[in-house]
Amino acid sequence: MKMIMRILAVVAAVAMLAPAAMAADQLQIEGSTTVGPIADAFVNAFQKKYPDVKFTVKKTGSGDGAAALIDGRCDIAAMSRFMKDGEFKKAVDKGITPVAHAIAMDGVCVVVHPSNPVSALTTEQIRSIYKGEIKNWKQVGGADMPIVVISRDTSSGTYETFHKLAMKKEKMGGGTEYVNSNPQAHKRVSTTKGAVAYVGLGFLDEKVKGLKVDGIMASKQTVASGKYPISRPLFLFTNGYPKLGSMVFEFCTYHLTEDGQELIGQKGFVPVTNY
């Protein structure tokens, strides 16, 4: 992780400066539903400091955030994954220079209904469930109850992380139900006894039960230490390194302040200073 941070720092330092996509009296953030709570918290703090600036946060997925930045429709793309090679190419072809700002760490948590007696799964079992090979909870030590498999949609950064780290890029089964956001996945599990889904660390609460994965429970501590097996950084992407002193610069560096770090922690994620 330290190496990744050094690489990102170098990229940011050498990226060419670019003007903000939006006017100075407004700031448009678009993208990840995982990063959404952090963006909302930052906006709430900034609105008190800059009451004359219009802040907008649109949460439709990391892929949409990348597309919006490439098309010049937002100032900041919130993403729960790194930009793909194809997205970088499209950006460069349009004269956009994506620069990543890693603002926090997150764990992709496998969750079930609180009444489900299953408390732990291996990544192999999770993969078999999502491939449709394990169809009943009794096959993994639970009740005799069909498994309702819930996944994020394929444009989601959370999906990308889960698909890579948990699924080993294997195809999900035909019975998988896809939802558009972390809140939708959370609600589906909280209201469906046989459901299983995966959400960002900041979406764990008493309405869903997080499972141990390979014997490790997702928490700020296990994510920060790298022990939890399905962990990833969260990003804000900008077109070039923001002009020093600009609103975009202040927003994208707010995670380095004590107030920003406190807000990230309050939302259930791991500030960059904690790992």
Protein described:
The protein is an alpha/beta fold. It has two domains: 2-105 and 234-274, Periplasmic binding protein-like II (D-Maltodextrin-Binding Protein, domain 2), CATH 3.40.190.10; 106-225, D-Maltodextrin-Binding Protein, domain 2, CATH 3.40.190.10. It has ten helices and twelve strands. It has helices at 2-14, 36-49, 62-70, 85-93, 123-131, 157-165, 182-190, 220-225, 247-252, 258-266; strands at 26-31, 54-59, 76-79, 98-112, 120-121, 148-152, 177-179, 195-200, 209-210, 212-213, 231-239, 270-271. Strands 1, 2, 3, 4, 6, 7, 8, 9, 11 and 12 form a ten-stranded mixed sheet that branches. Strands 5-10 form a two-stranded parallel ribbon. The protein starts with a helix and ends with a strand. Mean pLDDT is 91; it is low at 1-23.
Gist of the model:
Helix content is 34%, strand content 23%. By secondary structure, the protein is an alpha/beta fold. Helix 2 links the parallel strand 1 and strand 2 (54-59).
Mean pLDDT over the full residue set? 91
Strand content: 15-25%
Task: Round the Cα radius of gyration to an integer and report it.
Answer: 19 Å
Query: What is the distance, rounded to the nearest whole angstrom, between the alpha carbons of the first and last residues?
Result: 8 Å
Structural class assignment: alpha/beta
Number of strands: 12
Shape: globular
CATH fold description of the largest domain: D-Maltodextrin-Binding Protein, domain 2
Helix content: 25-40%
Supply the CATH architecture of the largest domain.
3-Layer(aba) Sandwich
- Show unreliable segments: 1-23
Element string (H = helix, E = strand): HEHEHEHEEHEHEHEEEHEHHE
Enumerate how many helices there are, as a single number: 10
Query: What is the CATH C-level name of the largest domain?
Result: Alpha Beta
Main beta-sheet annotation:
10 strands, mixed
CATH superfamily of the largest domain: Periplasmic binding protein-like II
How many distinct folded domains? Answer: 2
